[in-house]
Amino acid sequence: MADLSVNVCGIDFKNPVIPASGVFGYGREYEELFPLNKLGGIATKGTTLKLRTGNIAPRIAETPAGMLNSVGLQNPGIDHFISTELPNLLTKDLVILANIAGATPEECAEVAAKLDSTDVHMIELNISCPNVKQGGAAFGTSCEMAAEVTKKVREATKKPLVVKLSPNVTSIVDIAKSVESAGADAVSLINTLLGMRIDIKTRRPILHNNVGGLSGPAVFPVAVRMVWQVANAVNIPVIGMGGVSSGRDAIELMMAGASAVQVGAAIFTDPYAPVKIIDEMSDILDDMGVSSVRDIIGTVQPW
Ligand SMILES: Cc1cc2nc3c(=O)[nH]c(=O)nc-3n(C[C@H](O)[C@H](O)[C@H](O)COP(=O)(O)O)c2cc1C
């Protein structure tokens, strides 16, 4: 059996498969279906300084081979996460990536500082949310804002810091380089692609927020391209995601340069998807005669 273990930023994962932030909550609903310790890790729901009730419904729309969401970072706030959810997750023998967000660099840093004194393994900073100090443009859409928020969070914590990049940019490579220079230990990508659907009978957008983030198999080729470009441009590990729904997809994204893989929307069509992906990866690597998944990372041979 192929060895599926990987190491990202000095943290050991028993396998490279991680449910992505926002599709797995804090794991409670899924631990009734399978033991969470089968997973390499969990990226927890994006958590902010204070509780957020999220956007008004409808906040989900189906699309061909994907979905749009505008959940709006609904979460119970960092203090609740630390007192109630994190202790449960830390008993599960897997890597916990606490996904955090905020409306200002200072808020992101305050959330990170609270996590710094916990036993959480890694912090994943979501920079796709609006920076209220800069007229609501997402942090991740400019090198300056992305670097500023990364630097502030870096100063607030010694935990391994993964900065999660937005694909809604002209050059994701430039953003990746600027967060690397600002102190990120790793990058993860891609977050959702901004999209929109309209109900032609009512002429209203299907999402109450008008626009939302596209994810699922439809975005997979975009994720492969961006992971490949970023992995070739930075010297820190890349965690890949975007449309992964099979072991084959996970292996493809790792060949593009990802050291680990997150699984998002696929979990909504099949809650067992991450576990199936782990088993499929193992079978495929055995068929390929590859003894360690680490041996496939970044091995694509471009023309
Ligand atoms: C319903 C939903 C909620 C999400 N919430 C978050 C979040 O809180 N923080 C975050 O960084 N990404 C969030 N994401 C983005 C995913 O973590 C992931 O980056 C994206 O969906 C692409 O992966 P996928 O195509 O496998 O879903 C969310 C995605 C979905 C579908």
Q: Layout of SSEs?
A:
Layout: E1 6-8, E2 11-13, E3 17-19, E4 41-43, E5 60-63, E6 66-69, H1 78-89, E7 95-100, H2 105-116, E8 122-126, H3 143-156, E9 161-164, H4 172-181, E10 186-189, E11 193-195, E12 198-199, E13 204-205, E14 212-215, H5 220-231, E15 238-240, H6 247-256, E16 260-263, H7 266-269, H8 273-288
Parallel strand pairs: 3-16, 4-7, 7-8, 8-9, 9-10, 10-15, 15-16
Antiparallel strand pairs: 1-2, 5-6, 6-14, 11-14, 12-13
The protein binds flavin mononucleotide (FMN).
Flavin mononucleotide is lined by residues 20-23, 45-46, 69, 71, 73, 99, 126, 164, 191-192, 215-216, 219, 241-244, 263-266.
Structure, described:
This protein is α/β, with parallel strands linked by helices. It has one domain: Aldolase class I (TIM Barrel). The chain is built from eight helices and 16 strands. It has helices at 78-89, 105-116, 143-156, 172-181, 220-231, 247-256, 266-269, 273-288, and strands at 6-8, 11-13, 17-19, 41-43, 60-63, 66-69, 95-100, 122-126, 161-164, 186-189, 193-195, 198-199, 204-205, 212-215, 238-240, 260-263. It has an eight-stranded parallel β-sheet with strand order 3-16-15-10-9-8-7-4. It has a four-stranded antiparallel β-sheet with strand order 5-6-14-11, with no helix packed on it. The protein has a two-stranded antiparallel ribbon with strand order 1-2. Strand 12 (198-199) and strand 13 form a beta hairpin. The radius of gyration is 18 Å and the shape is globular. The mean pLDDT is 97. Flavin mononucleotide is lined by residues 20-23, 45-46, 69, 71, 73, 99, 126, 164, 191-192, 215-216, 219, 241-244, 263-266.
